[in-house]
Give the backbone structure.
Amino acid sequence: MDKITMAHGSGGEETSRLIRDIFAKYLNNPYLDQMEDSTIVPGNPEGSKELAVTTDSFVVTPYFYPGGNIGRLAVCGTVNDILMSGAIPRFITLGVILEEGLPIADLEKIVASVADTAREAGLLVVAGDTKVVENHSGPDGGILINTTGIGFLRKDSPRLLSSSIRAGDKVIVSGCMGDHHAAILGRRMQINNDIVSDNAPLCGMVNALMNSGIRVHELRDVTRGGLATVLHEFAMASSRVITLEEDAIPVSAAVQSFAGILGLDPLYMGNEGKLVAIVAGEDAELALELIRNSPYGEAAAIIGEVSDPLEREASAPPDAAHEDEQGVSRGALILRTWIGGERVLGPLYGEGLPRIC
Amino acid sequence: MDKITMAHGSGGEETSRLIRDIFAKYLNNPYLDQMEDSTIVPGNPEGSKELAVTTDSFVVTPYFYPGGNIGRLAVCGTVNDILMSGAIPRFITLGVILEEGLPIADLEKIVASVADTAREAGLLVVAGDTKVVENHSGPDGGILINTTGIGFLRKDSPRLLSSSIRAGDKVIVSGCMGDHHAAILGRRMQINNDIVSDNAPLCGMVNALMNSGIRVHELRDVTRGGLATVLHEFAMASSRVITLEEDAIPVSAAVQSFAGILGLDPLYMGNEGKLVAIVAGEDAELALELIRNSPYGEAAAIIGEVSDPLEREASAPPDAAHEDEQGVSRGALILRTWIGGERVLGPLYGEGLPRIC
C-alpha cells in the first residue's frame, strides 16, 4: 500500500502531487483553487462588521474510531466553537501534519470525511498546509490536524458571554454525556459494544436558537473536561450558583454502564457533538423544543438552573459560595444528587483521557 | 526543571493554569482576553470587503536554532504568506501541540518570541489552542505549532496572481538565498559557523512596494523548495519563460561555501525571510531601491527577466518551452550560468531537508 514519505513534506514536486491527488480532489472550491499562499475570500456576507475566529488542533488516537474519524472531528470541533459565539461558520483552514508511513488510503478517507462534514456544516475549506514528520506510531504513521474557523456574526446579534448569565436562567444540555470519550476509550481497550462517538456539527440547533428570538445568554460545546468543567467555568465567570439535577442529566444506558465499570464520571467525560445552553428561564421550554427538533438534539434536557449565591446562602453547603481561589468570585457549581444530597463540583483535575480529541 | 505533562492537555485545571501563566502572560490583548471558544474581532478596518486567509504548520527541529526559534518562525511564515497576497496581516491564531517532557522554560521562551514577532509585524494573536501528545523527541519533548493568519486587502488593491506575469517583467529577490536551510542543517550537524536563519516578517518591504504605485504582478516568499521551485511554478502558471542570471543571485559567502562542501544548490535551499517579486520592467529599479531600504532587504537584487516563449524559441534549448507534463503550458525556468551556458530548472524533487520549517 502506498504510504506517506518524508518527500511528501518537501514543498517540491511530491508535495504538489499529494495536494493535487488527495486534497484538491475532495476539497476543491473556487477559493481553495486559487492555490496561492493565501486565499482571498469575501469579508462580510452577513452584513456584520465582525468576525468570529477560532483554532483547534486534533491529536485523537486512533484516527478511525466508532462513529467517526479525525477528519470529521477536526471540522466539527472548530465549527462548533464558531457556533458557540453565535456566529455563522463560513470558512475553515486545514493544516495536516502527517507521520511518515501513514497509508495514503487512510489519508484519503480522512480528507473525504473533512469534505463531507464541511458540506454538512455549510462551509468551505479555503486554505491548507501539509507537513511530514518522522514516524512514532508503529508500522503505520499517524496524523495530526489543525483547523481554524472563521464565521460571521449576525447583524445586531447579541454577544454570548458568561457575564450575561443571570439568576433564573435555565441550563439545557443537547444530548447524552460521555459518548465520544467512551467510544475512544472502548476502541483503545478493544471492547466490542454499541457506543459510537457523537462527533457532529451543531449548526441546526444553534441556528434554530439564534433565529428564534430566544434569550440565549451563553452557549458552549461540551468537549475535553466534560460538562462539569464547562459549567464550573460559567459559574466562576458569572459569579452565579449553577445547580444541576443529577437525575435530569442524559447519559445513555451503554455509557452509564461502561463508565460505572471503569469508575468514570460522565460529568467529566468528553463529547464532540453536544452543547450546553444557558437561556432565560421563561424561554427554556421553547429552547428545549427547538433543540429536540434539530439534528443531533433528540435527547436534549433541561438539567439545572442559575441562582444568585446570596439568595441560596442559608441552604448551600458552607464552602459553596467561597470556592474560587481568588476569594472574589462567589460562583459555584452544585450537583443535587438523585438521593437528594448536594455536592460541590470543581473543574477536571489531572489527565482526563489523553488524546481524546 | 518543570516539564509539560499529559495533564496540561486535559482541558481541565492544568490546561487553564498553563494558558494563564504562559500564553496569556505574553500574548494578552483585548481580543484574546475574551477567553471564549471563539474570538470576536473587527471585520474590515481597511475598508476592503475581502479577507486574505492562510494556514501553516511548523515542525522545525531543533526548535531553537541560530538566529531564531519555532515561535518566531511560526509568526513569520504566516505573516509572509498573508503579505504575498498584497493584504495587510492583522490577526493570527496559535495552535500548539506539545510533547510530554517539553521544559516549560523552553515553551515560555517560544511564546515570548511569538509575542515579540507579532508585535514587530503589527498583528495580534486572537485565538489559541493547546494539546499534549506523548514524547518522541528524547529526554526533552518537542513542539509543533500551527498559525493561521487573517489579513485585509487594501481597498482597490490589485490581485497578485501568477497569470498577471508578463514578458518584460523583472524578477527581484529580496536577499541572500539559503540562510535558513544552512542554519538548521549546520545546527543539526553541530557545525560552528556564523550562519543564522533569516526568519523575519517582511511587512516593511511589502508595504513599501504596495503603497508606491509600482506595478507588482506577483509576490511569493521563498521557503521550502527554494527559489527555483517558486519560479518554476510561476513560469508554469503564467506560461512564460523566466530567465535567471546565476551571477546576479545573492548568496552569502558563508552559505556558498557551506553548500559547496555538502553539494547543495542554494537555488533549492529554503529561506524564511525572503521574497521574490515580479514587477513591470520599467518599475524594477524603483522597486529594488524600496526593498533595499526596507528592513531585511539590504542585499536585494534584480536577478532575471520574463519573456514570451515564442520570442525566445530560436535561442532557447529545444526542450525549454515544452517542459510541462501536460504539454499545454509553454512556460519554462532557465538559468543562465556564470560561464554563459543555459540550464533548464525544474521544481525540487525528493526530500529536501526534512523538518526545515
Q: What stands out?
A: The mean pLDDT of chain A is 91. Chain A has two domains: 6-153, 162-345.
